[in-house]
Amino acid sequence: MDGEKDEDCQRLSSAQALENEMLNFDNSQAVVNSAVTEGETANLQREFDAARESFQNIPTALRMMPKMDPCGVYANDNLRLDQLEVYGFDYDYTLIHYSGNLQTLIYDLAKEHIVKEHRYPESCLQFQYDPEFPIRGLFYDKKNGCLLKLDFFHNIEPDGCYYGRRKMSREELERIYGSRHISRDYASNLVGLMDLFCFSEACLISDIIQHFVDARLDFDACYVLEDVKRAIGYVHQSGLVHRTILAGPDKYLVKNAAVLKFLRTLRERGKKLFLLTNSPFYFVDRGMRYMFQDFGLNGDSWLDLFEVVIALSDKPNFYTSDRPFRRYDMEKDIVTFSKVNAFQPHTVYYHGCLKSFLEITKWKGSEVIYFGDHLFSDLRGPIKAGWRTAAIIKERLF
Questions:
Q1: What is this structure's pTM?
Q2: Does residue 82 carry a catalytic annotation?
Q3: Which of 55, 316, 369, 388 is the least buried, fewest Cβ under 10 Å from its Cβ?
Q4: What is the DSSP string of 123-157?
Q5: Mean pLDDT over residues 142-154, rounded?
Q6: 232 within a domain of the structure (yes/no)
Q7: Where are the alpha helices (DSSP H) in 57-140?
Q8: 6 assigned to some structural domain
Q9: Shared domain check, 230 and 193
């Protein structure tokens, strides 16, 4: 019996020793795996930092070279062009483009309004629009007054963040936001300045904040945003910008014969065209006449290119509201009160909504493509109807 007990003890000791060895091996392997993982991460970080530094140190001559063909067409999804029967277009920065003078005009008119109507210091009238400062895709933090550049995943891009006109350091950004990522909860404090019309807005906000900082004046970042937005809104809604552009179209509008050629080609191939814009008709009409007058299209005959023309559509609310259409009387400059049950040729309509548009036209979503320049007003909204969308992206060529 004693011999059997000794053997059992030996087997138990051996099994315990083997188990301890396996545990030690697993622990050491885990340490090795952890070290490998950390090492790989560190190597990836070093490679990324080296690539970023290399990109930032590209010679000036190479920086001026286009990274993409500015006349190219790019797709992020399969698209059968032969299945498209209807082509829709926005007006501003889609059918018609503007010179860099437009940003300066909006900026100057807004700064004058903010001084006269909102009683900002008269020294603000000395501000000058800087075309090299604003870029696409900016967000304004109305809580802290920072102008942020975020990537698709709401991570902060440190090289594109400013407080006023001063570039913010990585340490400063980390102190304010804790990390590079903007949380979903904090995102409600951010206001997007997405399209080309926002360039003047972003520049004016930053100039005002810098002015207040330099003058050691107390201010609320949220109110600066609200005041600038009111001023920008006024110069647009009052028609001040529109009238100034129409008074000197050579200074602000860019003619392009390819636009008319494209529209005519679509019509010749039996495609249906419509125009959907937030601009008032008188502004669109004068702009289209000016743009096409040298290319064999005179007067209001540009209306013949489109099956439907809708102005003052109030996008992006157009896609979600139940607002009815109203016919615009071009001769009397008034809108009628009769219900719109059908779209007539050579006729202009105001307001409306997507639901009524689809009911009247009977156009199916899969056969419609809409061209525009704004992420929310032109590209995201039409998806509700199943439309395909095309982004007209015009970077600064002036």
A1: 0.75
A2: no
A3: 55
A4: GGGG----TTS--SSEEEETTT-EEEEB-TTSBB-
A5: 90
A6: yes
A7: 60-63, 101-116
A8: no
A9: yes
CA distance 231 to 112: 9
Q: Are residues 162 and 138 located together in one domain of the fold?
A: yes
Strands 190-193 and 334-335 turn out to be: unpaired
Q: What is the pLDDT of residue 18?
A: 45
Mean pLDDT calculated for residue range 256-269: 92
As a dihedral over the C-alpha atoms of residue 121, residue 126, residue 129, residue 132, rounded to 10 degrees, the angle is: -110
Tell me the three state secondary structure of residue 182.
coil
Pairing between β-strand 272-276 and β-strand 86-89 as defined by DSSP bridges: parallel
- Please check whether residues 286 and 348 belong to one and the same domain: yes
Calculate mean pLDDT across residues 190-194.
87
Q: What is the pLDDT of residues 72-92, one digit of tens each?
A: 777 777 888 888 999 999 999
- Amino acid letter for position 350: Y
DSSP state letter for 86? E
Total number of domains in the chain: 3
Examine the residue annotation and report whether 90 is marked as an active-site residue of this protein. yes
**Model confidence over 336-353: pLDDT tens digits?**
989 999 999 899 999 999
190 and 137 inside one domain: yes
**Residue 127: domain span:** 101-247
Is the separation of the CB atoms in 156 and 180 below 8 Å? Answer: yes
**Residues whose CB falls within 8 Å of the CB of residue 273, separated by 6 or more in sequence, listed in order:** 86, 87, 88, 89, 263, 266, 267, 305, 306, 307
Residues 242 and 264 in one domain: no
3-state SS class at 40: helix
Identify the active-site residue in 2, 49, 92, 329: 92
Predicted confidence (pLDDT) per residue in 211-240, tens digit: 999 999 899 999 999 999 999 999 998 999
The number of beta carbons lying within 10 Å of the beta carbon of residue 175 is 10
For the chain, the maximum distance between any two Cα atoms, rounded to a whole number of angstroms, is 119
Pair (369, 238) in one structural domain: no
The domain boundary, picked from 190, 216, 247, lies at 247
Would 7 be classed as within a structural domain?
A: no
Residue 71, CB-side half-sphere exposure with 13 Å CA sphere: 2
Q: Are 368 and 271 in contact (CB under 8 A)?
A: no
**90, HSE (Cβ side, Cα atoms, 13 Å):** 26
CATH code of the domain covering residue 313: 3.40.50.1000
pLDDT digits (tens, 9 = 90+) for 30-69: 444 444 466 777 777 787 777 767 666 666 655 666 666 7
